[in-house]
């Protein structure tokens, strides 16, 4: 069997996945936890690694091909010259193996250089130390020829 990509309708990836799985089609919809800063607060969300796409594993002779386009949430089969674009098993396996390392890369890490972009220390380079609650961070700045530990809003940090 070979892997193929399906494009799903906007914001309907989970719906497409559910309906494909209900038809006993082997699917792969990789998601990672992403940390974002919204209105000065850190939030974690589960987001698709490839927004807009679901991978399916089918034989070219499988009768399920005719049902794919009419599956709820599915927009189209990714194809070139009216031939579905095959994806190597090695590529899918590499994505599966790499999901954990991709998820670990989110967020600001201790020791990472940042710049303060608001407040009294605007424009000063700093070194991130740790988060202090949901909305604040502790950073080290060079001030008066000495490293000073300062608490600043997370929204003031720029990587």
Q: In the CATH hierarchy, what is the class of the largest domain?
A: Alpha Beta
Q: What kind of assembly state do the chains in view correspond to?
A: single chain
- Assess the beta-strand content as a share of residues: over 45%
Shape: elongated
Fill in the CATH topology of the largest domain.
Alpha-Beta Plaits
Structural class determined from secondary elements: alpha+beta
Q: State the low-pLDDT regions, or none.
A: none
Give the arrangement of secondary structure elements.
Blueprint (H helix, E strand, L loop, with lengths): L1 E7 L4 H10 L3 E3 L2 E8 L2 E8 L4 E6 L6 H4 L5 E4 L1 E2 L2 E2 L1 E2 L1 H16 L8 E4 L8 E8 L3 E8 L2 E8 L3 E2 L1
Antiparallel strand pairs: 1-5, 1-6, 1-9, 2-5, 3-4, 7-8, 10-11, 10-14, 11-12, 12-13
Question: In brief, what are we looking at here?
Answer:
This protein is α+β, with helices and mostly antiparallel strands and 159 residues long.
